[in-house]
Write a structure and sequence with these properties.
This protein is an alpha/beta fold. The chain has helices spanning about 15-20, 30-35, 50-55, 85-105, 115-125, 150-155, 185-195, 210-220, 245-255, 265, 280-295, 330-335, 340-360, and strands at about 5-10, 55-65, 65, 80, 110, 135-140, 160-165, 200-205, 225, 260, 300-305. The chain has 13 helices and 11 strands. Bound molecules: zinc ion.
Length: about 375
């Protein structure tokens, strides 16, 4: 079978999941699952062999430090925080995790933080298509524990290129766990100015509607939603975690890109864990892709941001999927929906690549 078009995945919590669940994603997926056989309701879906199966070659890999109030003990080092200092130590810990990953597996993972590194990676990918090397661009998911704005410079120098300010919500703006009336705060506006000065790509995922609109109006730099679906396609959504149409339209006007998530609960809000898997299929994921394309009038503003293993795994994903590699099946499903190959290429990697080409800094500048 010919390889499908290559994929950029806009969101995976590789460090958090490796540290909290002690998963070694360089092992085959069957082995990872065998090592945690008691976890029948949230099995691993990421692994190096699954990346190869799906031709997934570049990932926005996150640094995520969960507020201790949301997590369940025992906490692994560098994954949870109760104080701002612990948040900072968590960021440093996960940065060091990725540096070790690159050093320990140089033939498997390579960090990408500049335009030149992206060019070199793309050249190598072209010259050695079967090597399977995976590029990692670092994304800080939530910085509500930030010690001071000076840390934005420290994190930028360390290679973080995408920052999503919010996860739970409250300090900078409204988030998934705060009220729908919350908007960007005065401190939040200051944060956005610092992020723009550091030329960070802004990730509005997890913002409530009003905060997303405030941010889209005021942010001077590049804006994306690394992992979010369309609220308009969900009946009775429990919160504002998914994007409403107005936010999607504003993102499109800003030439932004939205990464859609193959999580059953985010595709069908009536679906619950342990419901039959056949109730949700990849066709639902293609509906979210199509909805964004219809709002845009083209296929230039939607991509994949799987978030796989970030709080959900197998069997909480669409029927056709065993692991992340099965995202490749979207090629055929989009073809059936009438999408041309160049549009599928845009969704699979072209749109994220455009964001990286615009957003990564160059050594030369
Ligand atoms: Zn998230």
């Amino acid at each position: 079978m010919a390889k499908t078009d290559w994929i950029i995945d806009g969101h995976q919590d590789i460090a958090f999941e490796s540290l909290v669940n002690r998963r070694d994603y360089t092992l085959p997926i069957a082995k990872i699952r065998a090592l945690e056989s008691s976890r029948i309701d949230n099995q691993a879906t990421l692994s190096w062999d699954a990346y190869q199966k799906g031709n997934i070659r570049l990932i926005f890999s996150t640094i995520f430090i969960e507020p201790q109030s949301h997590g369940c003990p025992p906490f692994a080092a560098g994954t949870h925080y109760a104080t701002k200092q612990q948040f900072h130590e968590g960021v440093e810990h996960q940065l060091s995790f990725y540096r070790h990953y690159q050093n320990d597996y140089p033939d498997k993972f390579r960090l990408i933080a500049t335009q030149e590194q992206l060019d070199e990676f793309l050249r190598d990918k072209e010259d050695h298509p079967d090597d399977g090397l995976i590029g990692l661009v670092l994304l800080l998911e939530g910085c509500e524990g930030l010690r001071s704005f000076d840390d934005i410079c420290i994190y930028s120098e360390a290679g973080i290129r995408i920052i999503g300010p919010v996860w739970e919500g409250g300090r900078w703006c409204g988030g998934t766990f705060s009220g729908t009336a919350d908007r960007l705060t005065a401190e939040g506006r200051t944060l956005l100015r610092h992020l723009a000065a550091a030329k960070q790509i802004l990730d509005i995922s997890h913002m409530n509607s009003l905060s997303a609109m405030d941010s889209l109006e005021s942010y001077q730099g590049i804006v994306i939603a690394s992992h979010a679906n369309c609220r308009a396609l969900l009946a009775n959504p429990p919160n504002e975690r998914q994007l409403d149409d107005l936010t999607i339209k504003r993102l499109i006007e800003r030439d932004g890109v939205i990464g859609v998530i193959p999580f059953n609960e985010f595709l069908d809000s009536s679906w619950q864990s342990r419901n039959p898997r056949e109730q949700v299929t990849l066709r639902e994921l293609s509906n979210h892709i199509d909805h964004i394309c219809q709002l845009a009038g083209d296929a230039n503003h939607v991509a994949i941001g799987s978030d796989l293993d970030g709080g959900f795994g197998f069997p909480n994903i669409p029927l056709e999927m065993n692991d992340v590699g099965d995202l490749r099946l979207m090629e055929h499903i989009l073809q059936q929906k009438g999408y041309h190959q160049d549009e599928i290429t845009a969704v699979f990697h072209g749109n994220w690549l455009r964001i990286l080409k615009k957003g990564l800094p160059s050594w030369k500048k």
